[in-house]
Design brief:
The protein is α/β, with parallel strands linked by helices. The chain has one domain: Spore Coat Polysaccharide Biosynthesis Protein SpsA, Chain A (Alpha-Beta Complex), CATH 3.90.550.10. Helices cover 40% and strands 17% of the residues. It has a seven-stranded mixed β-sheet, with helices on both faces. Helix 2 links the parallel strand 2 and strand 3. The two termini are 22 Å apart. The relative contact order is 0.16.
Length: 243
Amino acid sequence: MKTTIIVPTYNEAENLEKLVTAVLALPLPDLSMLIVDDNSPDGTGEMAEQLGVQYDGRVKVLHRAGKMGLGTAYIEGFRFAIEDGAEAIGQMDADFSHPIDKIVELAETLESCDVVIGSRYVPGGSLDERWPIWRKALSRFGNFYARTILGLPNRDVTGGFRLWRRETLQNLPLERVRSNGYVFQVEMNYLASRLGYTFKEIPIYFQERRFGTSKMSFKIQMEAAIRTWQLPGMYKDLPKLKK
C-alpha cells in the first residue's frame, strides 16, 4: 500500500532531519512523509522543504499560518494524504517517543483491520522506565478515564501512534471533529469505534522525547477532561455502520 506518515510539528528542527532519515530508511515500499508545520520560528518548515528536495519528493510539507493545534493539523494532513492517493495513513510524534521500527509492523497489521494502534497498555507495551511512578499513574489514569466514560474496547485510546486505512478516514465525519489537544486521539478512536470499524493493537515502548520541549499544557489537559464527557452527545445522531 502507498503509505504516508503524518507528523505535526512546531519547533522540531532539532529532531526533524534525524526522524525523516530513520523513517524513510524503513523497508516499506512507497513510503512517504507529510510534515504539517505550524509556522515554527525555529525553521522546522524550511528544513522540511529542504528534506523534500533531498528525498525526491518523499517528504511533503503543509505550512500553516501559526500554532493552531494538533487536531486541526491531523485533519488537514488526512485530507491532503487522501487527495495525494495514500492508501494507509499514519500518525506519529516528531520527538522520537514512538518506536520508528514498529511502523513496519503497523503496516503489516493493517492488512487485517481498519485501524492499528501502537499501544502502551497491551501486554508487552510499556512507558518510559525513567518516568516517576506518579507520572506513569497519571498517564494510565487519563487512558482509563476516557476508556471507561466512552465504553471503548481498546486498551490505549489516548496514544498518537496509529495507522489508518484510507477508506476508514474517508468515512469518518472529520468536519465535525472539534478536539485539538491530545484528546483528539480519543475523539477519533470514539468515532471509529462507534461506526463499527475494527482495531488491532501492537505493543510499543513509549519513551520520553529525546530533544526539544513538550507541548503539553494545563489547557490541553482540561480540554481532555471536559471533551471526553461531551463526545456521546456530540455524536448521538451518528448511525452504526453496517459492515
